[in-house]
Amino acid sequence: TMVTSRSDIALEQSYPASVEGRQSIRIIPRVEGYLAEIRIREGQRVSKGQVLFVLDQATYRADERAAQANVDVARAGVESAQLAYDSRKQLREKDIVSDFDLQSAATQLALAKAQLKQAQAQLESAQSNLSYTVLTSPSDGVVGSLPYRVGDYVGPSIQDGLTTVADNSQMYVYFSLTERDVTERMQECGSMDKMIESL
Questions:
Q1: Over the Cα atoms of the chain, what is R_g?
Q2: Strand blocks (E) in 28-162
């Protein structure tokens, strides 16, 4: 026979879990192009605003120059139309030209101004596209894997992104409990909040 004694023991139970940082941001380019530079390495800690990747900029620089030239042409067109309108206005005051001529000059001026606004919008779009060729870190964090290499063609369609930047200043552990575990722990603790605190 054996004499048994009563004692308290701590039971441990383990659960499969995943550990994640506060946020994990995929870095996806907004424009297409060949990857020209990779300025980081896997596992490197980066700060917000730090340059991570640079895409080939030649095409986008050419688009910007063409758009700037269109703005210059449109601006010259406005100046020319303004001179024509001012001239017609003076001539109309002296009854040398008709109201139709003055109205026609006013219409040409309005058209030239509209063309200038359109050219300026195209320039802003070209400048935005050029700026999108430089990809920076949206937050402080740690760089994940780098599946792409210099020379690869990338764009907005890549689902997994060029890499991820994980902000691990706060870490979270995700795991699941079975219904039985939840019921038992609720009975022990008395409420859901106390149960969560005990975990």
A1: 33
A2: 33-38, 45-46, 51-55, 134-136, 141-143, 153-154
